[in-house]
Amino acid sequence: MKTSTAKIIGALFAVIGAVCICYPIITSIWIEIMVGAGLITGAVFALVKIPSEEGLWNKIYYLCISALYAAGGIFMFCNPVGGTAAVMIALGIMFLMEGVLILLYWANTLKKRHALMLLNGIITLILGALILANISTGLWFIGTLVGVDLIFTGIAIFAAPAQNIAARTQDEKDPHEYRSNNLG
């Protein structure tokens, strides 16, 4: 990715994160409504798949999945506050998984000088744990933590090109020293 593109994307992430922190309840409800819309979309796709299935049980399966997705999506649209707990659980699990993936990515790159990537992974793990520990806190919690995650992701993306340039400069000075020290 070009340096200018990464900086623009990183800045957009950070700005959107700041907006989420300024308006956490609106952000929480928007996230919950988007999950509801996704479930209703999944219900439509499952319903469309039914005629192409062979066998009664396959058709029944997709009909049941369609009904389940539709019920969940309609519940979230009709009761955004009530659906927030389900969204918080899903978001908490997603942040935990994202944090683990970021840390695995960081640990498996040859250039472990990306301290911001490491910090992003740790903060994302902490945010996931905070969400799961505070499900009953309320609507503001999701929006605030999503905002914090977006800000740190934006900072990591924004700073990555500069760190890559610094790492290349160091490797050009003595590429054998870096590889021998970091490849075991």
Structural notes for this entry:
- The protein is mainly alpha-helical.
- It has a domain at 3-31 and 80-169.
- 87% of the residues lie in helices and 0% in strands.
- It has seven helices and no strands.
- The protein has helices spanning 3-22, 24-49, 56-78, 80-108, 115-133, 139-173, 175-182.
- Helix 3 (56-78) crosses helix 4, helix 4 (80-108) runs antiparallel to helix 5 (115-133) and helix 5 packs antiparallel against helix 6.
- The longest helix has 35 residues, at 139-173.
- It is globular and about 55 Å long.
- The two termini are 29 Å apart.
- The model has no long low-confidence stretch (mean pLDDT 82).
- Count of helix runs: 7
Order of helices and strands: HHHHHHH
Helical coverage, percent range: over 70%
Shape: globular
Brief characterization of the structure:
Helix content is 87%, strand content 0%.
Topology:
Elements: H1 3-22, H2 24-49, H3 56-78, H4 80-108, H5 115-133, H6 139-173, H7 175-182
Keywords:
globular, 0% strand, 7 helices, mainly alpha, 184 residues
